[in-house]
TrEMBL record:
It holds the Pfam family PAS_9. Transmembrane segments: none annotated. It comes from Alkalihalophilus lindianensis. The keyword Nucleotide-binding applies. Residues 236-456 form the Sigma-54 factor interaction domain. The keyword DNA-binding applies. PANTHER family: C4-DICARBOXYLATE TRANSPORT TRANSCRIPTIONAL REGULATORY PROTEIN DCTD, TRANSCRIPTIONAL REGULATORY PROTEIN. Keywords: Aromatic hydrocarbons catabolism, ATP-binding, CBS domain, DNA-binding, Nucleotide-binding, Transcription, Transcription regulation. This is HTH-type transcriptional regulatory protein TyrR. Residues 83-127 form the PAS domain. It comes from the Bacteria. SUPFAM superfamilies: Homeodomain-like, P-loop containing nucleoside triphosphate hydrolases, PYP-like sensor domain (PAS domain).
Length: 535
């Protein structure tokens, strides 16, 4: 915008920045009083030099008077234009599709690009009303009808014949009385664009997953395998895992939750020839059956209500040439076990809602905290799948059976947490003693959790027994593991010990504990002496 009081330099700068042939000139009240052309400015400079403001240089009569907007052409002129040979040539030469309807919503012309994009021929639509074409299923929702109703440009995404995605932009052409005469729709095919976008997203997903698996593990393996953290038994498992990693043999990892099954599965992938390809994991216990199927095998567009309109590749396909870790495989419903067996045996599967067979090369590593052999005996896990998956079974013991690892693991994670939070906390010997006696039902995951919690919540530099959560202060010796099968006699004495310890903790004295447990006080004292002797 140029004001009459502005300098010539400002006018020149505006001309060069906007690149226009003319500028609007306003008075001090901001009203547009005319247009200044570049040639008028040039002429004035030639005559009067450049040392002036616009006001002194340009006469009002040098400005072009503002004209009213050009008159809208008559309806007849348009229909003549649309039917003309030149117009036809013009619209056929366009790369995007063109679809024109009249004020009644009747198709009057389409170009060849439209026929190419949609596969719909001109003679199938020209002369027909959009509502009838909608009913006949040629298009999903007519943009022309919307434009006619709303009298404004509208853009919509549409699906043609359930496969191609197009963007339709409808623009109204008005008559002088503001009635819509025609709607010109430009139609652009974006199927290819969406496919490319989808591929890029998938690529990024794979890349970031691969990266995060790498970030998390590479240092850790080095640290735990080259330290005294793990016991000989665990070391042997890692050694065996490394030996079989290079082959494609199927591995079944069994062990309680939090013992390190996922870590071993990632380790096998890291040491295998598939390391440059993706590693994916799916917890079969965390999702309902229908979702597991969709996650694992993918689905095609419209396979089920709520499915993404573009369909989705399953992990089985995304993990092509890589590794797929199926955690909690015991929770996989029987009908999906059949589908999985097919992939494991023949490397092929069919996505949900599709008829196309996909071929993949995926190494499946399965894991379970349930006893799969027992499940086979009960008929809840397919025997054939069990044997296919467990060519090499790896069983990881629970932490309470790897007691030698507890203190080194506490030290390892204490150092990590101190580093993470910038502290220098230590455990007292008594605290370490208490924690090493604890059962750790959640295994290493629980241990990490407790250490982190203690580091951030304890004010003192030394973490002592009283800081340890109550539930972690019971000794595994005072606890009867209900999942364990023990000789009856041992189980009874364990239960007896657990009950007596619980009563002593609650009532503090042997007299009161004996009263509640309905035994003599001396029975309790004798039993406690015996435990001391046995330890
Ligand atoms: N030997 C080890 N040394 C140090 N940390 C370990 C070791 N094994 C496992 N961990 C850590 O313990 C945590 C639990 O391990 P992981 O997730 O592998 O257990 P999981 O058996 O797969 O558990 P879930 O069955 O619940 O999935 C992880 O943070 C892992 O990094």
């Amino acid at each position: 915008m140029l004001k009459m009081s502005d300098s010539i330099e400002e006018a020149i700068a505006l001309f060069s920045s906007e690149g226009n042939e003319y500028l609007e000139v306003r008075n001090d009240d901001g009203e547009v009083i005319g247009l200044l052309t570049l040639s008028a400015l040039n002429e004035a400079i030639q005559q009067k030099g450049i040392d002036h403001s616009i006001e002194r240089l340009i006469d009002r009569k040098d400005l072009i008077e503002l004209q009213p907007l050009p008159k809208t052409i008559e309806e007849n002129d348009y229909s003549k234009l649309i039917q003309s040979h030149v117009f036809e040539e013009i619209i056929h030469s366009l790369y995007d599709g063109v679809y024109i309807t009249n004020q009644d919503g009747v198709t009057v012309a389409v170009n060849r690009a439209y026929e190419r994009i949609t596969g719909i021929k001109a003679q199938e639509v020209v002369g027909y009303h959009m509502e009838d074409l909608e009913k006949a299923g040629f298009i999903s929702k007519s943009v022309s009808i919307e434009v006619l109703k709303e009298k404004r440009p509208i853009t919509r995404m549409q699906t043609i014949k359930n496969e191609r995605k197009i963007i339709v932009s409808g623009t109204p052409i008005f008559a002088e009385d503001q009635q819509v005469l025609y709607v010109i729709n430009s139609v652009r095919d974006i199927t290819e664009l969406l496919r490319l976008k989808h591929e890029i997203e998938e690529l990024q997903q794979v890349k970031s997953l691969r990266q995060s698996a790498k970030d998390m593990n590479s240092d850790m393996y080095h640290e735990i395998l080259h330290s005294s953290i793990i016991s000989e038994e665990t070391f042997e498992i890692y050694e065996l895992a490394e030996r079989i990693a290079k082959t494609d043999v199927k591995v079944l990892i069994q062990g309680e939750t939090g013992v390190g099954k996922t870590l071993i599965a990632k380790f096998i992938h890291e040491k295998s020839n598939r390391v440059k390809q993706p590693f994916f994991e799916l917890n079969c216990g965390a999702l309902p059956a229908a979702l597991i199927e969709a996650e694992l095998f993918g689905y095609v567009a419209g396979a089920f209500t709520g499915a993404s309109a573009k369909g989705k590749k399953g992990l089985m396909e995304l993990a092509h040439e890589g590794t797929l870790f199926l955690d909690e495989i015991g929770d996989l419903p029987l009908e999906l076990q059949v589908k999985l067996l097919k992939v494991v045996e023949e490397n092929k599967f069919i996505p949900v809602g599709s008829t196309e067979v996909k071929h993949v090369d995926v190494r499946v590593i399965a894991a379970s905290h349930k006893n799969l052999k027992e499940m086979v005996a009960q008929g809840t896990f397919r025997e054939d799948l069990y044997y296919r998956l467990s060519v090499v079974p790896l069983t990881i013991s629970s932490l309470r059976h790897r007691r030698k690892e507890i203190i080194p693991l506490i030290d390892y994670y204490l150092e990590k947490c101190n580093e993470k939070y910038g502290y220098d906390k230590q455990f007292s010997l008594e605290a370490l003693d208490t924690l090493s006696e604890y059962r750790w039902p959640g295994n290493i995951r629980e241990l990490i959790n407790v250490v982190e919690r203690l580091v951030v919540t304890t004010k003192d530099p030394v973490i002592d027994v009283q800081h340890i959560p109550e539930e972690c202060r019971t000794s595994y010796k005072d606890h009867l593991d209900t999942e364990e099968i023990l000789p009856l006699k041992t189980a009874i004495s364990k239960l007896e010990r657990e009950l007596i310890m619980r009563a002593l903790k609650k009532y503090k004295t042997t007299r009161k504990a004996a009263e509640v447990l309905q035994v003599s006080q001396s029975t309790i004292v004798q039993k406690m002496k015996k435990w001391e002797r046995d330890e």
